[in-house]
Amino acid sequence: MTTITAPTASPPLSRPLSFDERLALASLAVDARIPTTQLDLADVIRLPVDTPPSAAPNPYRTPLAALLHRASVRIETDGWTRGACRDEDGRRCAIGAIRAEAASPGQADDASALLLDIVRREFGTPDDTVPSWNDRQTGPRPVLLALSRAADHAHTRNL
Fold first, then answer.
1. How many CA atoms, within 13 angstroms, populate the side-chain half-sphere of residue 74?
2. Alpha helices (H) in 34-79, listed in sequence order
3. Which stretches does DSSP call E strand in 9-159?
4. How far apart are CA 29 and CA 22, in angstroms?
5. Distance CA 97, CA 92 (A)
6. What confidence tens digit (pLDDT) does each residue in 20-73 have?
7. Is 6 helix (H, G, I), strand (E, B) or coil?
8. How far apart are CA 148 and CA 84, in angstroms?
9. pLDDT tens-digit map of 97-122
10. Inter-residue contact 145 to 80 (CB < 8 Å)
11. How far does CA 144 lie from the centroid of its chain?
């Protein structure tokens, strides 16, 4: 008579799982919990339509400093141009932005003169006018920097 013996089961793993193995198991557990129904973001997210960016409060209290800051904000929002005070798309050069924000032509002239002093002193250019300096720039960054420095200068001189 022949005796049949049952095969013995292999012993359980005696080593602990590696980090990668545990990570793979955790990922599978998380995936099992995620619902498979599609979520329509239009039902969840509601945004106002055509909301303009909120204007930052003007940090300057002196008239010329506040004007130069507003001119900088105008260029940031409307865009910058060269070769004209204002182009057909509403973009403005430094002088165009100052004139748009000034309360009077005299105030625009004072702010432009202060900006010219900053351009000559800090950018090392012997330009005759702000427009000639503005027209040589390749982008708005130097113009915005000059307006910011001029605003700081006007603020420290209490202008």
1. 23
2. 41-44, 63-78
3. none
4. 11
5. 6
6. 988 898 888 888 887 777 766 666 666 555 555 556 688 889 999 999 999 999
7. coil
8. 21
9. 999 999 999 999 999 999 999 999 98
10. no
11. 13
Find the helix packing angle between 141-156 and 63-78, rounded to 10°: 160
Please spell the DSSP secondary structure of 48-113, one letter per residue. Answer: -TTPPPPPPPP---SHHHHHHHHHHHHHHHH-B-SSSSB-TTS-B-HHHHHHHH-SSHHHHHHHHH
Residue with tokens 């900088």: 72
Cα four-point dihedral sign 122, 125, 128, 132: negative
- pLDDT bin (cut points 50, 70, 90) of residue 123 is confident
Location of structure tokens 């239009």: 42
Distance separating alpha carbons of residues 94 and 72, to the nearest angstrom:
8
Find tokens 């002193």 and name the residue: 121
Report the C-alpha gap between 19 and 5 in whole angstroms: 39
Structure tokens belonging to residue 155? 């603020």
Residue 88 burial by Cβ neighbours in a 10 Å radius (0-12, 13-18, 19+): exposed
Residues 6+ apart with CB under 8 A from 103: 63, 67
